Amino acid sequence: MEDSGHSNYYDVISGLSAFECSHEVLLSAGELEQLVESSDEECCKNGETTDDESSTIEKKRLTVHGYLGGKVDLTEASNASYDLSHTLLGGYVPRRQLESLSSIDFAHYFHKSLECENALRNYDLVMEHRRRRQQAENNDNQ
C-alpha cells in the first residue's frame, strides 16, 4: 500500500469496520508490518511511548449498568465520561444499549458516526490496493 504512511493500523481497521467490510480484506505480513511501523513512528513524533508503564494511570471503573452485576451509583454514573472512540460492533448498536445511552452519549456516538472522511480515505486505499492485487493475480494466471 503506497499511501499507508498517512494511516496507521488502527485507522485502517476502524475505517474498514465502519463500512463493515473488514472481513473482505486480507493484508499480507509485509503490509501489516508497514502499518504498525507507521503507527510507531507517529507515536514517536507525538512524544508518546508505548513501553513506559509508569505513565499509565489506572482509572476507577464506574458501574453504570446494573446488568454487569454491581450497584449503580447514579451520582457517579451521571458524572462519568465515556470513551466512545471505538465500537466493538462496528456501526451497529443494539437497541437496549442505545436506549441506555444518555443524550450526550448518543450525540457523541452520532457525531462520531457522521465523521467518516478518514474511514472513506482508508477504505479507498485498501480496496483499491486489493483490486489491483486481484487484477495482477488474474493476469499472472492467464
Distance between the termini: 24 Å
- The rounded Rg comes to 20 Å
Number of helices: 6
Q: How many domains?
A: 1
Helix- and strand-based class?
Answer: mainly alpha
> Could you name the ranges where pLDDT drops below 50 across 5 or more consecutive residues?
none
Largest sheet: none
Number of separate strands: 0
Shape: elongated
Short characterization:
By secondary structure, the chain is an all-alpha fold. Helices cover 54% and strands 0% of the residues.
What does this structure look like?
The protein has about 140 residues and is an all-alpha fold. It has one domain (about 1-50, about 90-140). The chain has 6 helices and no strands. α1 crosses α6 (about 115-140). The relative contact order is 0.16. The mean pLDDT is about 70. One of its GO terms (biological process) is chromatin remodeling. InterPro entries: Rsc14 (IPR013895). One of its GO terms (cellular component) is RSC-type complex. Pfam families: Rsc14.
Overview features:
single chain; 142 residues; mainly alpha; elongated
List the helices and strands and how they pair.
Blueprint (H helix, E strand, L loop, with lengths): L8 H10 L10 H18 L27 H6 L15 H6 L2 H12 L2 H25 L1
Helix pairs in contact: 1-6
